[in-house]
Structure formats: structure tokens, C-alpha cells
């Protein structure tokens, strides 16, 4: 028999009445009722209420013991009376009468409460992460993460994928985020890089003749933190398939996501066949390539309206003449909303760095008119045209933004979410998935004006590559795709370019000479020259999937040991300085900035 426990703290029930048991765990709570002391004993599996009478020799000792101390209890299971049953506990039908106890691990004074999930300072939570992880909500999030990964792994094996591990020490990549570099002791002056993703290796696995690969892959990027992005490292379901087209990848991922989200959430999936939206359409209708499709609001282009003679709103007309665009959002049946609602949205837009949001409401007495600060600048004919374009009706309102490409998309995308939340239009009890497709292969850098890859440089361009007009690179679309859920980008993927000559051509457009491609991607280019199959894949982020399933807003809440915003591990005090001997061994020296 195990000397620490006969049962865990989540399994006893009334069938165990009168059993003598050993339980071990942490003291979650204590309640002193004078003659009786109640102790909630907690372990990974649950909580069991234990009780001791004042007449016991152990009463005073237990009364003094610090919360979160680890103890072993020797006791007797007692069925609770009907009125004292706690339905919130799996063990709520019973309690354990304490016969004796033993301290297994004493706890010092706590720097933070454990038994509540109240918000606490981030630096304390991360410094004492081992305590933070004991708290109920985050403990359950980490267990959920484990179950999600186990489920994904079992599903991928069912789908005929094989799991392989790719190297952690690899070469630096010139594309994407900053690399984390690792000095080589045996090769002085040279460095490995931690992989930003197993991109090249998984393609090489396809070239090697394995048909379907996956792994739960760690990825390392020296990026700044965001609510949905950890600094330093993250995990993704990395997968690749040979002899496939875009739709074949979609079929596997849609099936996996539907099964996964049904398994671990009670929320409804809006559509089990995910909507496909072109990048261009997404930017026009939603202002972002990460649209939240639970939000019914659509963005409309009204630029041409402000070239009409019967529209007298001169501020927008001047901006349009100089190249700005006008975008609009319609809110249905908001004629009775107080002016403060509209002014609040306008003020918010200014706080976001925009010039504000103009607005008015469509009305009709003898004729169609516009009520609001700028309503007088529009003729009835122009209002009718606006209503036709936006499918607006009498009683609806319109918000208008004007600005350059990029600026106007950003503010209307944010406004779309802001207004929808203000009007309670978001269904919090559903998941809305979509594919964003037809990404441009290239884009123009706003500062340097040079052509660069917009997404993944290893992607296959769309169409017959012998007929592509390489002189118009901004017109080239790629077989690149993102999967988005509730406004969160879960993954990027692509059908890969497996033709070396075509890869050289595309890289040359982005400013890379053949020798640079050979140097930076020698393994890839060499392998593709020995008979490579058409292949493609994707890599959904594990952290973001769990974040959605756990209904969390910050990725830190579903990560076991996250870093802070400055990419520091406060618990292990990393990064840290190293001694001179280690540096000498690696042929390194530190040059401090003046």
C-alpha cells in the first residue's frame, strides 16, 4: 500500500462511508468553528473536506499550521447529512474525520493567495509561478492544455500522419522574426539558431518520401510580447502532406478543429464548413485579415460618394482628392440611441490616433434626410446612393472614417469590434472559423519602397508558373492561407514551391541573388533538385487554441512557465550573466554599449 494515500482528494464518495483512509495534499482552506476545525485538503484531482474535534490532541497543531503546507491525514470517511452536502465538490457527499496527521512539507508565509482566482500583480505571479499554478483556474487551464495536445496527437495518428522530431539547433534564417542564436564551442565564431519553425525540415521530410508528417513543435522567435503571443517560445501543431492541393490541407484541418472544439467546449461552432475569404475581401469588408465573424458588422467603401457635387462635406472631399479612402460601418436600427453613444465612439477613435468617426442617422419625413453633426452636408440623392451601397434602411446609423490605405483599414477594423461590443452584437457562445486565402506573394515596403515577400517565401504562386508575369510582382497571388477563429489567427500555411528554378526567380524579385539563396537555403535548394513532390502544410498554434477553449484573453494564462513582457523569466532569473570561463570556452566576449 502507498504510504502517502489510499485515495486522491477527488474520488471519495458516500460508498466509502466508514472506510479508514490516508489522504495527502495541500491545505487549501481552514475554517475554525470553535469546537470544530474544517480543513479543505487539495491535490491535483480535487478537494476533500476534513474535520477535527477540539478534543483531539492534534487540534491546536492543525489550527496553527500555515495554508499551503503539505500534510498527510489518517482519517475515517463519514457521510454528510443531507443539509451539509456540497454539490460543488466531487467529494461533497462525505467528509473525513481526522484521526492523526503528519506534516510532509511546511509552507512559509505566502506572497499571494492561492484559494482565490482574483487578479494579482504580474511580477508576483510570475516570480512565484509554482504557487500561481496551484490556483484553480490556471491549474485547470494547464490540465486542459495537456488533454488538448493528447487529443490532437491521437487524431493525427488516426488521420494517417506520422510523428517525427526535427532539430532544435539549426541555421539562421533571413526571413521572419529575429533568431535566437547559440554559439558553437567546436566551431569558433559560428552560431546555431533556434528554429522559428521547422519549416525547411518538414519540407525535407516530404522530399525524403514520407507522405504525412506532424509534431507538437517548439518554436523560438525573438519577438515582443502581445496578449496572444509569448515572447521567446511557443508551440504549434506542425504538419505537412505530399501530393496535395490547398483543399486537401483544409479538409484535414477543418475535421481536426471541429472535433477538437466539440470535445473541449460546449460552445457552438457557427459553421463546420469554414468560410473562405480572400485577403483582398477581408481587408475591404473587415479591415483586417483576422476577422471575427461573430460580428455581423461589415465595412463599406464610400470613397466615390465624396466625388459627387451634391455632397458638401469638404473635409472628406479634400482628403479623397489627395488619395484618401472613405470607409463606412452601418449599425441597424440605432435611431433611438442617445447622442452620447455616437460621441463616445467618436472620442474613442481619436484616442486610438484617428481623426475621429463622423456619423449620422437615416431619417424620413417627407423625404430621406440625415440626422447628426454632418447630416446637412448630404443631399437626398446622395443618401439614397449610400443606402443602396450599404443596404442601410431608415432608422439605421452610419459611422464614417477617412484616411490613407492602411490607416483607414486599421481604425475601421477596430471600430467594427468596438461598436459591436457596445451594441452587444457578439455571440460569446460560439466559435466562428474562416480561411483567409489568396494572399499576395509580394508587397511593397512602406519605408524602403522595395518589393519583399508578404508571407512565406517558400510558397507556390498561383497559376501556370510558365505564364506568370513576373514584371508585375504585386499582382502575383500565392497558395497561402491563414485559419482564423473569433478574430484570432490560429495558423498560417501554404502549398510549397518545390521547383528550384521558380524559387530562384521569386527570390530575385525580393532582391536575393542566386548565390545568396544557395548560401542561406543550401539544404532546401539541394534537396528540391533531387525529385521533390508537390506538398503543403500548416501549423496551428497550440497556445492560441487552448486560449480560445479556456476562454482566456492572455496567452500567459494557458502557458506553464511564461516570461514577462520583457522576455524575462522572473522565477529562474533568466536571462542571466555567465562567468568569464564559459565565455572563453565559447570564444566570446561581451562588449558593453557606451
Could you explain how this protein is built, in words?
- The chain is α+β, with helices and mostly antiparallel strands and 594 residues long.
- Helix content is 27%, strand content 24%.
- The protein has 16 helices and 24 strands.
- It has helices spanning 59-64, 122-127, 129-132, 136-158, 199-207, 246-264, 279-285, 314-321, 339-351, 380-390, 407-422, 500-509, 514-520, 522-528, 542-549, 580-585, and strands at 20-32, 36-43, 46-53, 70-79, 94-105, 162-163, 181-183, 191-193, 212-221, 232-242, 268-269, 275-278, 299-301, 325-331, 358-364, 368-371, 397-403, 430-431, 433-437, 442-444, 451-453, 480-485, 488-495, 535-538.
- The protein has an 8-stranded mixed β-sheet with strand order 6-9-10-24-23-22-19-12, with helices on both faces.
- Helix 13 (514-520) crosses helix 14 (522-528).
- The longest helix is centred in the N-terminal third of the chain and has 23 residues, at 136-158.
- It is globular and about 95 Å long.
Give a short overview.
This protein has about 600 residues and is an alpha+beta fold. The chain contains 16 helices and 24 strands.
Mean pLDDT: 95
Broad structural category: alpha+beta
Strand order in the largest sheet: 6-9-10-24-23-22-19-12
Largest sheet: 8 strands, mixed
Shape: globular
What share of the residues does DSSP label as strand, in percent? 15-25%
Amino acid at each position: 500500500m502507498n504510504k502517502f494515500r489510499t485515495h486522491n482528494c477527488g474520488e471519495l464518495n458516500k460508498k466509502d462511508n466508514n472506510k479508514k483512509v490516508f489522504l495527502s495534499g495541500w491545505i487549501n482552506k481552514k475554517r475554525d468553528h470553535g469546537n470544530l476545525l474544517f480543513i479543505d485538503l487539495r491535490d491535483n484531482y480535487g478537494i476533500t473536506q476534513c474535520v477535527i474535534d477540539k478534543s483531539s490532541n492534534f487540534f491546536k497543531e492543525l489550527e496553527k499550521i500555515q495554508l499551503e503546507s503539505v500534510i498527510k491525514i489518517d482519517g475515517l470517511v463519514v457521510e454528510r447529512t443531507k443539509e451539509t452536502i456540497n454539490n460543488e465538490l466531487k467529494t461533497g457527499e462525505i467528509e473525513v474525520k481526522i484521526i492523526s496527521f503528519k506534516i510532509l512539507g511546511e509552507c512559509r508565509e505566502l506572497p499571494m493567495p492561492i484559494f482565490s482566482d482574483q487578479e494579482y500583480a504580474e511580477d508576483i505571479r510570475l516570480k512565484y509561478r509554482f504557487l500561481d499554478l496551484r490556483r484553480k483556474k490556471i491549474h485547470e487551464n494547464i490540465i486542459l492544455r495537456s488533454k488538448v495536445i493528447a487529443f490532437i496527437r491521437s487524431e493525427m495518428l488516426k488521420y494517417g500522419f506520422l510523428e517525427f522530431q526535427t532539430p532544435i539547433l539549426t541555421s539562421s534564417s533571413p526571413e521572419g522574426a529575429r533568431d535566437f542564436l547559440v554559439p558553437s564551442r567546436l566551431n569558433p565564431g559560428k552560431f546555431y539558431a533556434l528554429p522559428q519553425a521547422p519549416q525547411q525540415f518538414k519540407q525535407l521530410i516530404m522530399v525524403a518520401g514520407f507522405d504525412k508528417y506532424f509534431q507538437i513543435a517548439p518554436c523560438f522567435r525573438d519577438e515582443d510580447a502581445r496578449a496572444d503571443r509569448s515572447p521567446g517560445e511557443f508551440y504549434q501543431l506542425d504538419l505537412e502532406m505530399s501530393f496535395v492541393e490547398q483543399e486537401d490541407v483544409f479538409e484535414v484541418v477543418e475535421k481536426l478543429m471541429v472535433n477538437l472544439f466539440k470535445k473541449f467546449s460546449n460552445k457552438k461552432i457557427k459553421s463546420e464548413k469554414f468560410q473562405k475569404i480572400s485577403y483582398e475581401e477581408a481587408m475591404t469588408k473587415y479591415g483586417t485579415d483576422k476577422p471575427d465573424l461573430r460580428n455581423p458588422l461589415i465595412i463599406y467603401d464610400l470613397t466615390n460618394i465624396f466625388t459627387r457635387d451634391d455632397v458638401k462635406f469638404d473635409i472628406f472631399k479634400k482628403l479623397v482628392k489627395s488619395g484618401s479612402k472613405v470607409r463606412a460601418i452601418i449599425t441597424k436600427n440605432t435611431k433611438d440611441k442617445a447622442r452620447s453613444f455616437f460621441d463616445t465612439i467618436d472620442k474613442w477613435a481619436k484616442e486610438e490616433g484617428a481623426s475621429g468617426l463622423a456619423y449620422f442617422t437615416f431619417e424620413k419625413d417627407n423625404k430621406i434626410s440625415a440626422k447628426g453633426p454632418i447630416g446637412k452636408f448630404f443631399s437626398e440623392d446622395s443618401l439614397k446612393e449610400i443606402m443602396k451601397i450599404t443596404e442601410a434602411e431608415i432608422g439605421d446609423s452610419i459611422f464614417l472614417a477617412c484616411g490613407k490605405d492602411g490607416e483607414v483599414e486599421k481604425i475601421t477594423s477596430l471600430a467594427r469590434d468596438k461598436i459591436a461590443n457596445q451594441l452587444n452584437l457578439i455571440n460569446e457562445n460560439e466559435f466562428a472559423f474562416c480561411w483567409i486565402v489568396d494572399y499576395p506573394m509580394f508587397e511593397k515596403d512602406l519605408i524602403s519602397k522595395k518589393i519583399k515577400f508578404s508571407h512565406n517565401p517558400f510558397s507556390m504562386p498561383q497559376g501556370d508558373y510558365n505564364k506568370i508575369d513576373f514584371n508585375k510582382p504585386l499582382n502575383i497571388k500565392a497558395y497561402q492561407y491563414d485559419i482564423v477563429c473569433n478574430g484570432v489567427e490560429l495558423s498560417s500555411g501554404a502549398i510549397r514551391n518545390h521547383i528550384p528554378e521558380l524559387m530562384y526567380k521569386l527570390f530575385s524579385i525580393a532582391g536575393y541573388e542566386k548565390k545568396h539563396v544557395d548560401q542561406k537555403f543550401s539544404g532546401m535548394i539541394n534537396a528540391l533538385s533531387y525529385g521533390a513532390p508537390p506538398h503543403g502544410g500548416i501549423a496551428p498554434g497550440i497556445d492560441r487554441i487552448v486560449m480560445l477553449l479556456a476562454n482566456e484573453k492572455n496567452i500567459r494564462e494557458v502557458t506553464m512557465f511564461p516570461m514577462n513582457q520583457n522576455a524575462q523569466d522572473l522565477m529562474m532569473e533568466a536571462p542571466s550573466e555567465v562567468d568569464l570561463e564559459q565565455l572563453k570556452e565559447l570564444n566570446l566576449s561581451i562588449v558593453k554599449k557606451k
